[in-house]
Specification:
The protein is 81% helix and 0% strand. It has 459 residues and is mainly α.
């Protein structure tokens, strides 16, 4: 295996490179998001909105698992890309092997922790008297698939960094197709309800994980050996910080969902909507939001190997150009998404089943208010990943934490005191505006640094 096989990352036209890597990455992330969306659609139509409420309660455990998987996988991917740019073959090989071991060990530990802490987890994420039975049924099966889910998602980042974005896309797509086929059979034919949706999901995850294992024997830029799987603290100290932004981004989703669910249940019970409608609706809105984020992160994460390789190779002019193109694409994604959410909220909500007028009323409000600043959100999230690609985890982590935790959590808690059950919906747009302004300051300094390097290279 020869790392020179990735030399084209510093030579090929940037636009074509970004399309080659970003489109498969978008598809992979989109398919991952569709796992939950598909479950919501079929459960909503086959079980009802209480079933969907139950999946919203369980959803955070999959996000916790994904957070750890991406910290390892995205951190390794950024590390590999930089090492490849420096032609450091040994670090590339050993870094990938260490990532595999940590993924396996952490996934087993997480699964066991979840199993023994089930009731506490469900209560923490807003289970109600009406949906707790459904939540337990869904949880008991979904938790079994955690190791497969983590392994496939973590390895996908490594596979993309190895120059095989199409394989990463296919492995995820196959799992999703299996889920889509089995979901209606399990729910409408076998009448297994939420249990059937969970079984369909973990079967798809198992197949995706199997394909990831297959790829480890067919890598391009490195070849694993027995020594690659010996854990090395020095390597892990370099890999894991590069993935901390991805980890915190996902973890913040868990925290905000836990806080959001509990606040919506509390203030919803005091309103005409009741405890279950606001929590169920916002859960659907946040999962639709994840579809847009799949495009947003797909463009940025897909470009990560290109950014990392060129940065490691000293091609700072190309790095700056990649960022400019990335921002133009992100603005377009955000604009299209915003128009859809503002113009067609009822049509989107209708995909998840037909419910009461009160349900529809709150759903329309949720889409139009909570997602009204998608353009700013897309730009900020892509910039955070770009900074991660440059090996700047502190800046990247700071942006992620600011929007998704430091601002969002207090806003969700405080705004209902003034605006009632509509208050939490305002948290996202306020957080987006503030974070975007901070991002402008950070990127002004980063781009200045790149410009100085470009001038030094031309002397």
């Amino acid at each position: 295996m020869n790392q020179n096989s990735n030399q084209y990352l510093a030579e090929a036209p940037i636009g074509k490179l970004m399309m080659k890597f970003s489109i498969p990455c978008i598809m992979s992330l989109l398919v991952s998001s569709l796992y939950n969306i598909v479950d919501q659609i079929f459960i909503g139509r086959g079980v009802g909105y209480l079933g969907n409420g139950a999946t919203n309660v369980v959803f955070p455990i999959t996000v916790i698992a994904l957070a750890i998987a991406l910290m390892i996988g995205d951190g390794c991917a950024a590390f590999l890309s930089i090492c490849q740019g420096k032609k450091d073959t040994d670090s590339t090989r050993n870094g990938a092997g260490n990532a595999v071991v940590v993924l396996v060990l952490s996934s087993i530990i997480i699964m066991l922790v979840f199993i023994f802490a089930r009731e506490g987890i469900l209560n923490a994420f807003g289970a109600t008297e009406n949906n707790i039975v459904y939540a337990r049924d869904y949880f008991n099966i979904i938790v079994i698939g955690i190791p497969f889910f983590m392994f496939s998602n973590g390895l996908n980042s490594v596979i993309r960094a190895d120059g095989s974005p199409k394989f990463a896309m296919i492995s995820t797509l196959v799992g999703c197709i299996i889920n889509v086929i089995l979901d209606p059979i399990a729910i409408f034919v076998l009448h297994w309800g939420v249990k059937g949706a969970a079984i369909a999901t973990i079967i798809g995850q198992f197949v995706s994980a199997g394909l990831a294992v297959y790829y480890l024997f067919h890598t391009k830029s490195f070849k694993l050996n027995a020594g690659s799987f010996v854990l090395k603290g020095i390597l892990l100290k370099r890999i894991l910080p590069l993935g901390i932004s991805s980890f915190l981004t996902q973890l913040s989703i868990v925290i905000i969902m836990g806080v959001m669910n509990n606040v919506l249940v509390k203030y919803g019970a005091m309103s005409k909507y009741g405890a279950d409608i606001p929590m169920t609706v916002v859960g659907i809105v946040m999962k639709v939001f994840q579809i847009v984020i799949a495009f947003t992160v797909g463009v940025a994460a897909g470009s990560q190997p290109i950014v990392g390789y060129n940065y490691g190779a000293g091609q700072k002019g190309r790095v700056k150009k990649i960022y400019k193109i990335m921002m133009m694409v992100e603005v377009c994604i955000g604009l299209i998404a915003t128009l859809c959410f503002e113009i067609f909220p009822m049509q989107i909500l209708g995909l998840f089943g037909s419910e009461s007028d009160l349900y529809n009323e709150y759903g329309v409000k949720a889409f139009r208010i909570f997602l009204c600043t998608m353009i700013l959100c897309c730009v900020v999230k892509a910039t955070s990943i770009f900074l991660q690609s440059l090996g700047k985890p502190i800046m990247s982590m700071g942006l992620s934490l600011l929007r998704d935790f430091i601002l969002s959590v207090p806003l969700v808690l405080l705004l209902p005191l003034v605006f009632g059950v509509e208050g939490p919906l305002l948290s996202a747009p306020i957080a987006d505006v503030v974070t975007f302004l901070i991002m402008l300051v950070i990127m002004k300094n980063v781009l200045k640094e790149l410009n100085r390097s470009i001038k030094a290279e031309s002397v």
